[in-house]
Specification:
Number of strands: 10
Amino acid sequence: MTQMAKAKQGVVTEQMAAVAKSEGLSPEAVRDGLAAGRIVIPGNVNRRFAPVGIGSGLRTKVSANIGTSPEHHDLAEEERKLQTAVAAGADSVMDLSTGGDLFAVRKMVLEKSPVMVGAVPIYEVAARLSAEAQAFYEMTPDMLFDAIERQCAEGLDYITVHCGVTRQAAALAGAGRRVTGIVSRGGSLLAAWMHHHRKENPLYEEFDRLLEIAAAYDVTLSLGDGLRPGAVADASDGAQLQELVVLGELARRARNADVQVMIEGPGHVPIDQIAANVQMQKALCGGAPFYVLGPLTTDCAPGYDHITGAIGGAVAAAAGADFLCYVTPSEHLCLPDIDDVRVGVIAARIAAHSGDIAKQVPGALDRDIRMSACRKALDWRGMYQAAIDPCLPRQRREASHPEAESVCTMCGELCAVKTHNRMTNP
């Protein structure tokens, strides 16, 4: 029986109780949110780790993408990326590998990750066909569903499946309709497959088959936004909205089958459209947790997209988004390295925390109050402990060698806090 089925029966499971404790909520609140589909607790029946909840009333969570490419595949490096992401505070990792020994990478991540793990099964199918010098058109629906079931059996906690890329929706992203067309890797593959065969998306057409697999392993479905905008000029267009309408209906069917589901979102979105996008998703998808990829608020900052993603992520989280996919400085440029992973996670965590303050998530403001109190007291060690990233502020301060222990090299003895403290505590 899935977590959702138990929640609907009024049962508080060990996982629900653990999430409630970590979030400062009652177990019943978590149970009821899960039963209604507003909260998910990804966790495969074949894996054990500290459960994490995603959804309404909970802290905004952060996911880090790692994985190989055909041009660069090093298992040891991927393990270091995993360790770096977790150490930086990621709540989840996604293995997006498309090159090298995909099974070995996934096996390593599943065995060594202390946080939930997601993946995109269609990547395995595409990579295998490419390695065999076959076009993706050679994929059969059975090949795709076999890959999904095999990866779920291996232990994935959630999977991205682009079920909403229908023939009708894909046509709305056709030639001349968008600046960048279809930028989702999985979405583009399915759109090309449908165009070649003149058939409907098998993930949409055989959605009940997908639900059976997910229910067997209690795998959470992350309904991917295969038609997300890849340019701010394409945001909130017909293709994106048509896909979202389909995902809303599929989310309802998943909940009726006691399968946990979350919805993936854009993409590249102007800052003034982000809140509306979140509100539309919540309305159309019955309050399902929203997993946003950024969003990036401008297209012209390559090398700094961890910043554009953090800006968009903060606005999205404040508007009600529940799960942020990190963006690294290497976005649009190359495969992220270990430093990119760390910076990306920290940037996304800053965005998530900023959103939690705006949403008034219980306890979110406490950390900021601690930091501010330590600043007033010129308590540097306390500041480090309250920081989202304790390492960098300590390194920067120690490297500057301030003459007085109680001040920094910015203001020295002209420190405003020190002056005010003298005035109020003569």
